[in-house]
Fold this protein.
Amino acid sequence: MSLFHMYLPIAGNSVNIVVVLCLGMAVGLLSGLFGVGGGFLMTPLLMMIGIPPTVAAATDSNQIVGASTSGTLAHFRLGNVDFKMGILLLLGGILGGTAGVEIIKVLRAMGNANFLIQICYVVMLGVIGFYMFAESLQSLRKRKRDGFSPEVKKESRYGRIVKKLPWQMDFERSGLRLSVLLPLILGAFVGILAAIMGVGGGFIMVPIMVYLLRMPMHVVVGTSLFQILFTCAHVTIMQAWQNHTVDFVLAVLLLVGSSVGAQAGAKIGRKLKGDQLKILLACVVLLVWFQMLYGFMARPEIPLAYVKGH
Amino acid sequence: MKLQVFLMLTGLLMYLAPAAGAKGGIGLSVEPRAIEIGTFYDGTTLTVSGRIPLENRVVIQFSGERAEFSMKQKTKVGGLVWMNTGSVVFKQAPSVLLVFSGLDLKKSQEKPGRADFFSLASLKKTIRVEAGDKVEGDMVGELIKLKQKEGLYREVTGHITYEKAADGLKAFRAVIPIPSRLKPGVYTVEAAVLGKGGEVAAREGQKLEARLAGLPALMAALAFNHSIVYGIFATLIALFAGLGIGLVFQGKGAH
């Protein structure tokens, strides 16, 4: 028995409280800084300290509810949450997620779906990561060279199509006028991908908000966190109800760390410029991409994996 | 069929009957009699003691109930990536197996006819594997490696001390560490008396229950018996904790 350790009844293991608090803080920092849930990082870290994979993923959703609430609040106070956009993306996400669950059933019935999904994930992360990195690097260099002169961009074909869409609406917080259909469609697209890939979707949602909805980076982070809060609350309830894989004790420990980390992340993010934030996020995306690629290609130490939590 | 019944009865008698060498049995004692898994549980120790003939040695085993594990084997697909492909089901695999002895079990097992009941190597004979066509290789060996990595299968030399006692018997005492990754259930502590040739002269076992207590018991009951309430409760607590921390930061005058 040790005062620094706590037994987790659902995970069936004991963990060091200090280690879990530090993990939560580190991932919460990323969440507050970039507006991502951090599940991509937290789940493997939890597995490394002996938490079964299914419990790690479900419990992570629970702690993200806390971290994203704290992060949303911090960004709301800074004026960085576009609630109108967030609600539309969320509605699209719910519709897309429901469709995605059906699609995954069909894919699984066809066989070898996991292979296709994982390859899709690696390709998507690679494309997003490299594009964001190159674009923000170019932008940073240009700003250094030309100073802060306002950038006059020629309207693209995409921009012209978007302007022609019906039901245009003002999104004051983002400084945009867009069709209601666009966030709904893009939200549904992310929902489908998130359901198929089994991830929260923050990594896909943030670049979509930046490049397809053309929202300012600071508003993207706050709005993404607001949307993640609801997605993860839904996942937590479903996982606890259907699979009994949410370890509440672990989630509380993680969210104490991550909520503090998310506040710190929001404050650091405020001091960085949009392009600097983008290039940092691109680096994290590329790091995850490389880790996944390595995981696929390197020979596993033990070529066995549990089908369901153990 | 008759031969199988005969072998089973012989095995049962060997297990139940005290050894000829250890008159009156080993007198196995295990303390504590149950494992309580409370809030701050981080593994525990069991003290196992008894008496054996002077010329013999003892091996102690802590094992969990035998269960079925469904797993996937990873193989290289397209000569490029490692994927979960074939399905493997391990039957009669103990959830935990810890073996403590004063001798090198690997060396002892090199000679035929020696005791190998109390070793990880013996699992290759007792675990049954049901695998699809795509599965290949030593699957039980890989399962043992995986469980060793999780700290649930262990073979340890040492941990047993002997004291001289009267009537041609010596007392043994072992303090054995139990892992933190322990699930509630019934476990067995067994002691085997090994003869000079390494053969098992006697075996004696005791059942031991590991049960949840305090907060872990409350949480597990809620999670498994009222799962939807548990899910909503977990979500609300996370939400209010996040709000609370957010307000604390606001209170410190950030903005």
About this structure: Chain A has a mean pLDDT of 81.
